[in-house]
């Protein structure tokens, strides 16, 4: 017998260990026991009772105190604690059994490769996969289980069992790192090497890790209840082996998908050659799909519902590859015993059925699909909708109808899942894979994602084919019943087309569309008949809660043309647009007013040692402190903390404040200095290459005593830094941004792991009332875009911007109220890590105080809505006589003749990107003379679009002009006067020079800022005497929500927004449009190609984050010739922006999202793929802040 296996406790072995694994020591015919390990030599729950009674007794006593705890009674808990116990004895060189010692030494030399051991960057490679969520859940479970064990066992027992070191016993407010590492190590071992059997036994067999695993191993592992008189784990030869032939391990516990292989640290992942797909040939390969189905109260009380759930569970289990092939003594797959159907009670006491389906190349069984189709009808409202939509279907609760309904639901869910997968996972895996050796974790994760994406595409194709086959059968039956002649039948089939898409991209939506249009059409309806509001309300919708998109014979869909547009009243709107209106309350993309709104004050959570009276603002409707959404969940953390003695009330210390002066800033006014001193702010920090501190600087400044003595500052000594944003008189508009950028970069580099809050304090610089009496844009306004980008890129430095009109003691109250509002309940001392991180995130916001009232930035629908790309809403003089138009078509009126016939339009940056699309829109509005500029007067393309504009009757002149130079702008405007009076200005010039926030420099900042911001300012200054009809500025959503790598561009865009507000205050025409990414090549609203921003790539690839050229043209028409008054700043929001990733953006969107109809089960198709995140917090930001706290 091999010495290696004998040392591990094996009673028989016909194997020997070599450098590559194990091989047969002698010839072994089929059925020969190759390895025999007595059960008593394994790590089992029974072994804990005999070898480690301390663990067994401690768990038994804890279970008496907490009998409902499954963790205390689980066999895996006993085995894990046994491993930790013996590992500690080994490290202390205590005497122990030899076979335990040998196995622990073997385990110590292994590197854990389970997902429990993967770091954050490794797990990012699983983006889009179900296993990313599962890995996070398992990692969180390890922490939660350990916390629960420490709380149940107590500190002294935990120390005796080796869970806690003696030096850590006095500071157990949080789980000691050493304890977490030890417990995670044991869980990794069990997850990778643990065995579960049909009989319910769970064990860890030493030595099996010496054998590699393979499905073609030719071995089989069984737990024999009696082998030579005692129970044993036996590895049998399942074929003949020759001496020296390699032997590998196989049992049903290894029969799992690649996702489980990663979870268990197993698997032989290989990178396919270029052009070849990733291998997904395993019979167990599948993708987990989660369906959430609501259940109405009436259905939950019906026994029929529970019988459907049981039948669905049984059908799904029966469809598993290993079903029926397991013996009582064999190991089971890792998903054995998983509940595929679970009933969850939500917070509102309503029930939700969660169904997990493993989908691959084959569909679930017909029985499973039938039960799923019935379960979809468990919600009363959905049932009524289904019966209305399927009233032309015979037996809607029969097997065929239910199966079709289930397939449609699965198809939609898979289509959403497909959009979550990254586009280039396989390409990235090839680039990152080494030439030889074990593949890195990131590469294995990318291979899994690529395999899953391929499986999802194949599953979509299989579902399409099944639906298509069912559709053809239905058409045959329909023709037989209605007597349709062959020609009509051929025409119906021709309209259906082939919906199969071998690439899996967009296949499901197009297939369902084709299915709809191929069904029964009403020949009696006139082509072009208008849709009524009642018709629109009954349109079938994509719904995440399971409402199938099927045909209703009397549906208004039959009046829609095949091209996807409807007639006169909704020209340009696709049928998806109309369906989304009834779900969201508005169509996409959403054109929004960007404004400030009064918000009532919230009661403070924690006020430290000072008394706070925030009730000096009263809401006229609801009184003090109405119930409005809070910044974040203020419930105390549910985690159980270990305390050695009863907790005593602690008076949290006050926050440590300091003043940070920027180079160009003026000294704070006396009222501000008094407020800072009242808050305990005395030290002053200055930026002199690095941060320098002057103790008692604020006190000396208030008393008129000055000193230049300074020493290097330690940022960690402060909790709050106040930056006074006043001054910079006579400086260039971007100088404040450059100084603030430098200060924030230094803070990021010097703060280390400290938690620091920054407060920007300004006086009537931004917000309502800030433009009164101004003739120039405030220097601080551009910094708004810079700050919002900083929040997105460096969330470890949360920034609160407070602008006030107060010059009295109210400044102190406002400062303290806003800072305390984001502190965790109970103060920083008693808060958990998550609460502290949430508090840091909640600190990010802009607040404006005017006469004691609190204003916050908000977005709401523009009066110009809806924006339908290609909508025929521009009315020229020749169109006015064609009869009355619909109400929606009249949001854009004709431009007056003095604008179109004799006037001139100027479009800077008009040779490409948004500028060229804006020029085309102006031509469609009737402009006859147009000047488009670029820096050197050169075209970005072949000029075909400009030639098309000229062919339509518009005179187009291309001029060279560097708008960043004032003299160049002045000369351009003088040349334009030759062609006629200037009537329309569209400023779309701009360049990009992206760089990380900490890598931005003044030169690159000005390179981007000047042509966009200063160019707009020069156009404003030198056209104030012109009788302009429109002055349109092309801003960016980066100024609203921030954009990583574009702090300079966001600042310039914020300057444009404030310039538009300034012109409006001066009673001059102005609209600033915040654009998202624009697809340069897409002429269809639903197509997505390369995203651009003013002609340059942005890198935005997320579905729903960009708009098409027709949308750009339509928005330009609306802002130039709109008939309704709007806010001077308009934002164009694609669907992706309605899923906020930060608290700041979520609060901005509150009025917009509140328009969603409050119907049970109604959710947006676009938002459905984001529901799984559900927290509303940017998780990347929270994790960064958790590191700080």
UniProtKB/TrEMBL annotation:
UniProt keywords, alphabetically: Phosphopantetheine, Phosphoprotein
Sequence ranges assigned to domain Ketoreductase in this UniProt record: 903-1084
Organism: Effrenium voratum
GO annotation terms (biological process): fatty acid biosynthetic process
GO terms, molecular function: fatty acid synthase activity
InterPro entries: KR_dom (IPR057326), NAD(P)-bd_dom_sf (IPR036291), PKS_KR (IPR013968), PKS_NRPS_Biosynth_Enz (IPR050091), SDR_fam (IPR002347), SET_dom_sf (IPR046341)
Region called Disordered, residue ranges: 477-510, 538-568
Protein name: Ketoreductase domain-containing protein
């Amino acid at each position: 017998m091999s010495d290696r296996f004998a040392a591990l406790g094996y009673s028989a072995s016909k194997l020997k260990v070599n450098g590559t694994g194990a091989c047969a020591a002698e010839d072994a015919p089929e059925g020969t026991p190759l390895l025999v390990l007595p059960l008593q030599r394994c790590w089992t729950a029974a072994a804990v009772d005999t070898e480690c009674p301390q663990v067994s007794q401690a768990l038994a006593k804890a279970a008496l105190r907490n009998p409902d705890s499954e963790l205390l009674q689980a066999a895996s808990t006993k085995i894990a604690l046994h491993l930790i116990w013996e590992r500690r004895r080994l490290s202390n060189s205590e005497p122990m059994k030899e076979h335990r010692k040998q196995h622990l030494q073997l385990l110590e030399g292994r590197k854990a490769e389970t997902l429990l051991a993967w770091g954050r960057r490794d797990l990012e490679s699983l983006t889009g996969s179900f296993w990313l969520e599962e890995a996070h859940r398992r990692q969180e479970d390890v922490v939660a289980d350990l916390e629960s064990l420490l709380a149940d066992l107590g500190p002294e027992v935990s120390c005796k069992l080796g869970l806690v070191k003696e030096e850590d016993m006095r500071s157990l407010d949080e789980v000691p790192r050493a304890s977490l590492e030890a417990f995670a190590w044991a869980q990794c071992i069990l997850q990778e090497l643990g065995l579960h059997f049909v009989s319910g036994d769970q064990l860890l067999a030493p030595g099996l890790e010496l054998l590699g695993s393979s499905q073609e191993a030719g071995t089989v592992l069984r737990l024999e209840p009696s082998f030579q008189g005692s129970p044993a784990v036996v590895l049998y030869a399942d074929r003949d082996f020759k001496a020296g032939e390699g032997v590998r391990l196989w049992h049903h516990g290894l029969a799992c998908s690649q996702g489980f292989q990663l979870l268990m640290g197993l698997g032989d992942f290989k990178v396919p050659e270029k052009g070849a797909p990733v291998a997904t040939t395993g019979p167990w390969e599948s993708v987990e799909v989660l369906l959430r189905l609501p259940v109405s109260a009436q259905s939950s009380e019906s026994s029929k519902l529970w019988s459907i759930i049981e039948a669905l569970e049984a059908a799904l289990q029966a469809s598993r590859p290993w079903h029926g092939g397991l013996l009582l003594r064999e190991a089971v797959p890792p998903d054995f015993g998983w509940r595929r159907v679970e009933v969850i009670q939500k917070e509102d006491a309503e029930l939700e059925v969660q169904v997990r389906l493993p989908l691959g190349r084959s569909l679930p069984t017909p029985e499973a699909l039938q039960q799923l189709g019935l379960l979809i009808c468990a919600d009363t409202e959905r049932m009524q909708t289904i019966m209305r939509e399927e009233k032309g279907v015979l037996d809607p609760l029969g097997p065929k109808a239910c199966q079709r309904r289930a397939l449609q639901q699965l198809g939609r869910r898979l289509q959403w899942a497909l959009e979550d997968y990254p586009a280039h996972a396989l390409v990235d895996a090839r680039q990152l894979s080494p030439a030889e050796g074990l593949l890195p974790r990131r590469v294995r994760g990318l291979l899994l994602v690529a395999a899953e994406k391929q499986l999802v595409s194949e599953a979509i194709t299989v579902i399409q084919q099944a639906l298509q086959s069912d559709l053809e059968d239905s058409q045959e039956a329909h023709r037989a019943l209605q007597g349709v002649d062959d020609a009509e039948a051929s025409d119906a089939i021709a309209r259906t087309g082939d919906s199969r898409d071998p690439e899996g991209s967009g296949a499901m939506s197009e297939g369902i569309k084709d299915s709809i249009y191929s069904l029964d059409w009403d020949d009696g309806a006139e082509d072009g008949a208008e849709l009524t509001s009642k018709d629109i309300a009954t349109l079938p919708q994509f719904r995440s809660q399971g409402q199938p998109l099927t045909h209703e014979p009397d549906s208004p869909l039959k009046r829609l043309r095949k091209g996807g547009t409807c007639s006169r009243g909704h020209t340009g709107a696709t049928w998806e647009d109309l369906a989304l209106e009834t779900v969201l309350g508005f169509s996409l993309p959403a054109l929004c007013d960007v404004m400030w709104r009064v918000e009532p004050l919230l009661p403070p959570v924690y006020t430290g040692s000072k008394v706070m009276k925030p009730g000096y603002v009263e809401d006229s409707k609801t009184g003090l402190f109405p119930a409005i959404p809070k910044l974040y969940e203020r419930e105390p953390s549910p985690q159980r903390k270990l305390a050695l003695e009863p907790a005593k009330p602690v008076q949290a210390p006050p926050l440590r404040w300091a003043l940070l002066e920027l180079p160009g800033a003026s000294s704070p006014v006396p009222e501000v200095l008094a407020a800072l001193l009242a808050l305990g702010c005395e030290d002053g920090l200055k930026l002199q290459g690095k941060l320098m501190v002057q103790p008692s600087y604020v006190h000396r400044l208030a008393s008129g005593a000055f000193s230049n003595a300074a020493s290097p500052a330690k940022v960690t000594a402060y909790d709050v830094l106040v930056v006074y944003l006043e001054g910079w008189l006579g400086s260039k508009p971007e100088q404040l941004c450059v100084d603030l950028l430098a200060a924030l970069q230094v803070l990021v580099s010097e703060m280390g792991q400290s938690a620091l809050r920054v407060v920007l304090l300004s006086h009537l610089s931004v917000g309502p009332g800030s433009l009164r009496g101004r003739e120039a844009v405030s220097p601080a306004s551009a910094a708004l875009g810079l700050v919002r980008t900083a929040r997105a890129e460096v969330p470890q430095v949360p920034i609160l911007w407070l602008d006030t009109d107060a010059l009295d003691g109210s400044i102190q109250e406002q400062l303290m109220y806003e800072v305390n509002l984001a502190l965790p309940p109970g103060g920083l001392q008693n808060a958990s890590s998550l609460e502290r991180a949430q508090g840091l995130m909640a600190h990010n916001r802009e607040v404006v105080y005017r006469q004691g009232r609190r204003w916050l930035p908000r977005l709401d629908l523009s009066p110009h809505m809806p924006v339908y790309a290609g909508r025929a809403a521009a009315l020229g003089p020749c169109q006015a006589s064609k009869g009355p138009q619909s109400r929606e078509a009249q949001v854009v009126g004709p431009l007056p003749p003095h604008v179109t016939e004799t006037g001139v339009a100027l479009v800077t940056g008009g040779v490409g990107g948004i500028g060229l699309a804006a020029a085309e829109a102006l031509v469609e509005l009737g402009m006859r003379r147009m000047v488009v500029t670029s820096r050197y007067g050169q075209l970005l393309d072949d000029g075909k679009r400009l030639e098309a504009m000229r062919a339509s009757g518009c005179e187009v002149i291309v001029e060279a002009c560097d708008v960043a130079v004032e003299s160049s702008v002045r000369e351009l405007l003088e040349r334009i006067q030759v062609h006629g009076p200037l009537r329309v200005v569209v400023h779309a010039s701009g360049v990009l020079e992206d760089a990380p926030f900490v890598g931005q420099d003044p030169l690159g900042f000005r390179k981007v800022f000047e042509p966009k911001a200063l160019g707009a300012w020069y156009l404003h200054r030198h056209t104030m005497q012109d009788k302009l009809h429109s002055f349109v500025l092309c801003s960016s959503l980066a100024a609203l929500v921030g954009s990583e790598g574009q702090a300079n561009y966001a600042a310039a865009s914020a300057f444009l927004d404030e310039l538009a507000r300034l012109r409006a205050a001066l009673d001059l025409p102005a609209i600033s449009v915040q654009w998202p990414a624009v697809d340069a090549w897409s002429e269809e609203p639903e197509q997505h190609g390369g995203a651009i921003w003013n002609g340059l790539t942005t890198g935005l690839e997320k579905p729903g984050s960009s708009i098409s050229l027709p949308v750009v043209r339509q928005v330009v028409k609306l802002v130039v010739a709109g008939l309704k008054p709007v806010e001077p700043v308009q934002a164009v929001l694609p669907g992706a922006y309605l899923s906020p990733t930060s608290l700041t953006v979520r609060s901005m969107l509150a009025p917009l999202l509140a328009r969603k109809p409050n119907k049970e089960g109604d959710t947006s198709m676009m938002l459905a793929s984001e529901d799984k995140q559900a927290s509303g917090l940017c998780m990347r930001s929270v994790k960064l802040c958790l590191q700080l706290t």
